[in-house]
């Protein structure tokens, strides 16, 4: 049975009644790089990966930036992630990510994505991050961005350590399953909603909404967008999240405190979108039930 874990801002119910949503992919849509790969140096410093793997990670960042990742590459990445993270302590991973997130990730936020989120909030829409990246990244970024919901990949954790298995892989058609579960829960009209992504592998996500928007597309997605007549946007201005948010007037942004609204497989976890850097998979055991 498919289950989806959906996280809700504690004061968001009034706006959820708007029944429209804007779904955002994370890597190369909200942020300028693959979020897991961007943390490679931090994991190297902490001894979780060796120098050889760090070099592979840096190379993967370049490949991801220039070429994206197709379905075959994604599956290889997922398998490598499972092998690499088995036995890692989730608390240690969470601590590392928390300590370096603002320094490493938040300067990579696209100004254009922040502006779109602001506009959708002003229109009363639910803001949702839908990402195959790890919850260690997705959750704190969702807090910083004050989005209403986030959906990510869920790895299996036993006695505080990753087993190398996944309970849910938030990728391709599985993203749509999670989006539909969210829509059922809060009454979102997908036909009136928006989706933003850069990758051809997210075609199901784009097809699930009435207003698909292609961002910084790879070659395959660019061809598809032209054939379908979808809107194409180019994000070029990474900015510091702290400076940008402080400069914006955003009275309708949600408070960062998040509580579990409903458990069902889709909101936290592992993977990312680029080569072998899936060392970050876990789900905060303190915020989920078994």
Characterization of the model:
The protein is an alpha/beta fold. It has a single domain, classed as HAD superfamily/HAD-like (Rossmann fold), CATH 3.40.50.1000. The protein is 41% helix and 17% strand. The protein has twelve helices and twelve strands. The protein has helices at 13-16, 35-38, 40-45, 51-67, 71-85, 90-104, 111-122, 135-145, 173-186, 203-207, 219-228, 241-247, and strands at 6-9, 21-24, 109-110, 126-130, 149-151, 154-158, 161-168, 194-197, 211-215, 231-233, 238-239, 258-262. It has a six-stranded parallel sheet, with helices on both faces. The protein has a two-stranded antiparallel sheet with strand order 1-12. Strand 4, helix 8 and strand 5 form a beta-alpha-beta unit.
User: First CA to last CA: what distance?
Assistant: 14 Å
Along the chain, the helix and strand elements come as: EHEHHHHHEHEHEEEHEHEHEEHE
Task: Please give the CATH class.
Answer: Alpha Beta
Average predicted local confidence, pLDDT: 71
Beta-strand content bin: 15-25%
Class of secondary structure makeup: alpha/beta
User: Which geometry do the CA atoms define?
Assistant: globular
């Amino acid at each position: 049975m498919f289950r989806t874990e959906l996280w809700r801002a504690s004061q968001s119910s009034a706006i959820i009644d708007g029944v429209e949503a804007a779904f955002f992919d994370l890597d190369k849509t909200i942020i300028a790089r693959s979020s897991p790969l961007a943390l490679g140096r931090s994991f190297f410093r902490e001894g979780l990966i060796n120098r050889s793997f760090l070099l592979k990670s840096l190379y993967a960042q370049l490949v991801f930036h220039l070429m994206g990742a197709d379905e075959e590459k994604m599956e290889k990445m997922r398998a490598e992630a499972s092998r690499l993270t088995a036995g890692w302590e989730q608390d240690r991973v969470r601590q590392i990510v928390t300590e370096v997130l603002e320094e490493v990730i938040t300067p990579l936020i696209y100004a254009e994505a922040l502006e779109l989120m602001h506009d959708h909030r002003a229109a009363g829409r639910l803001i949702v991050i839908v990402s195959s990246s790890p919850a260690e990244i997705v959750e704190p970024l969702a807090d910083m961005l004050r989005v209403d919901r986030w959906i990510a990949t869920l790895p299996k954790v036993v006695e505080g350590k990753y087993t190398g298995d996944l309970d849910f892989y938030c990728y391709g058609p599985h993203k749509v399953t999670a989006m539909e579960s969210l829509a059922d829960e809060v009454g979102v009209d997908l036909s009136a909603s928006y989706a933003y992504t850069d990758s051809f592998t997210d075609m199901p996500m784009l097809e699930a909404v009435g207003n698909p928007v292609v961002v910084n597309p790879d070659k395959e997605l660019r061809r598809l967008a032209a054939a379908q007549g979808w809107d194409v946007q180019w994000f070029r201005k990474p900015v510091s999240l702290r400076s940008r948010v402080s400069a914006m007037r955003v009275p309708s942004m949600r408070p960062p405190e998040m509580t579990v609204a409903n458990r069902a497989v889709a909101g936290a976890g592992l993977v990312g979108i680029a080569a072998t850097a899936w060392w970050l998979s876990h789900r905060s055991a303190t915020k989920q039930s078994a």
